[in-house]
Amino acid sequence: MICFFNSTNAWGGGEKWHLEIATAIASEGIPVIIAAGKDSVLQKKATANSLATFSFKITGFSFLNPFLILRLRKFFVQKSVRTVVLNLPSDLKAAGLAAKLAGVHRIIYRRGSAIPVKNSFLNRFLFRNIITDVLANSFETKRTILLRNQHLIDPEKIIVIYNGIVVSDQMEISRKSANAPVVIGNLGRLEKQKAQHLLILLGAMLKESGCHFQILIGGDGSLRDDLEKQVRVNELTDFIQLIGNVENVAEFMGRIDIFVLTSHWEGFGYVLAEAMAAGKPVVAFNHSSNPEIVEDQKTGFLAIPGDINDLFLKTVRLIEDETLRIDMGKSGREKVLKDFDFTKNYQKIRKFLLKKS
What we know:
The chain has 14 helices and 13 strands. It has helices spanning 13-27, 41-48, 66-78, 89-101, 121-130, 139-145, 197-209, 224-233, 249-255, 270-277, 290-293, 308-320, 322-339, 342-354, and strands at residues 2-6, 32-36, 52-55, 83-86, 106-111, 133-136, 158-160, 182-187, 213-218, 240-244, 258-261, 282-285, 300-303. The strands form 2 sheets. The chain has a 7-stranded parallel β-sheet with strand order 3-2-1-4-5-6-7, with helices on both faces. The protein has a 6-stranded parallel β-sheet with strand order 10-9-8-11-12-13, sandwiched between helices. The longest helix has 18 residues, at 322-339. The two termini are 14 Å apart.
């Protein structure tokens, strides 16, 4: 039995990965269960996909609760779990310990954040005594795991497998009419990491330069009210729309001409690959895992990290050159088919998950 354990109530790349991989594994008749946060998006989507789901509430201090640890241990034993895949640090601390006590053969920590792991006593204990394998979603993520302690875990135990993207058979290429605005898109949680406030600065600069454009920002989060206020204060309501949660990513990508990612960091920029799969050129900062996805000047542009002026110049170049947009979009789609196709990457993940300890 494989257990995918992810207790967050939020929905993001990690949760999307858990759902897609668990669904694909289960479709082959391999026993799979999902442990998720109660009434979380993951739990609801997993149930809709006919996956067996169980709910747990885990916090950063849950590992100090012996009653919860014993409950989790009993859960792993009763479900005959041999492999557990953990996604959150809080889940790793509590469910990882419980899995060890239950005799689970493989305790896999899926690391999706390209930020350094703290060199704390607890982390050293977890990585050396609890975790059997680490699954990283990019080489940048792998690098940051060991950044503050090269001996935190044997590097051979960290395997990198990129997230897979389902690519449709068709890619619609439409040329803009002379009076139609070029549509810039961004998709993600409205949180500090994603830095959508830079899109508003970008919009102000594009407006001042006389560009004919529109910016669509998809997603929701704690910063929505603040971002909407910034749009009003900068008198950009005719140019920038915050459209809320996006259920159909392919439909969203079909509405835009350029995808701009302003995140401070990404473990693996799912949305960059999704935009490229839809044949859209992308602009992102040249940091974290972005260079592993975007081929600068071929599938899009990589801007100087944090430099809004450079981001502006590269976006303007794509706004003004339709042929370049189309050519980069085609190259981006080819890149996704080569390196990030779901079917190809799923086979790598399947082999990794079913490997005997």
